[in-house]
Amino acid sequence: MAVDAERASGYRYGQRAYLVQLRRNGSGTGLIDPVPLPDLSVVQDAIGDTEWVLHAANQDLPCLAEIGLTPERIFDTELAARLAGLPRVGLGAVVESLLGYSLQKGHSAADWSTRPLPEEWLVYAALDVEVLVDLRDALAAILQEQGKTEWARQEFEAILAAGPPPPRSDPWRRTSGVHGLRSRRQLGMLRSLWQARDELARRRDVAPGRVLPDAALVSAVQADPRTEGALLELPVFRGRANRKLVGTWFGALARGRELPESELPMHSRSGDGPPPVNRWADRDPAAATRLQVARAGLAELAERHTVPVENLLSPDLVRRLMWSPPQPRDAETVAAALRAGGAREWQIDLTRELLTDAANRA
Known about the structure:
One of its GO terms (biological process) is nucleobase-containing compound metabolic process. This is Ribonuclease D. Residues 183-263 form the HRDC domain. The chain is mainly alpha-helical. The protein is built from 19 helices and five strands. Helix 2 links the parallel strand 4 (51-54) and strand 5. It is flat, with a radius of gyration of 24 Å.
């Protein structure tokens, strides 16, 4: 069963599905509007035990789960293309490369919350699943020839086992331009302004960037206006919509400005991971050497197996292992650490010896 979903990213708040596309050999293509039909459990009953073919499954599975659609087995054509070593893994590029078809373009970034949906948009959406099963079969044949079928099976199972991603910690830190803010006070003001925007966007069901762009948040913090009038002099805030909201934005800035020192955010997010790699040479030269050896070995291994190095093993897991190697530094202990860090068995089999060697470098 080929499955796809269209969202309204950049237009609506959140990542809900606004169209679901299904195609099954012998049944044709079906397009479902989940706005008036928010519970598709009756569809789930019909297709739940079928292998679902999706492209970039991580993007669609969360919004499908919200409307009652959760697969038992999947085949991710985007991930399969990565494992197969294809140079480009976008749906259009893979279809053209393996099947010789050119998919219609032009509506991927459309506002799929639009109602009624234009006929040409529906045709575009239907084409996304038209050849997905054929693409799955072509990729499966390549993986079989390369001896990577088991790799793909483990990867697909890991996607399903992971479930929906947890909420981001300190999501305001992802504001574009945040690195231009130098003081903790400025970070506190940005956080307060970001939270005010997020609350308003949620209430209006509008993408936060359409309420107020990131650049406006950062520029307001840097300007630090002391009156509403001064805030209205800044670009973007001069517009009619934001003139009406000037009290909201100025109040948020004031709250951040008045926070006690103890409540201001730190410059970097607290966590249990290693420091930024550019600081390793100064803080722990031996760890820097270990990482250098590990990265070189993984790059050579990835090239030999024609698979992207980031799919060979999570870069974050590599950094953690090289910063604080498990004890004792033997292959069995390294394998256990990899397993605990979420690595799949095929990844462990390929990398354990290489990483054991790197962990013992000084």
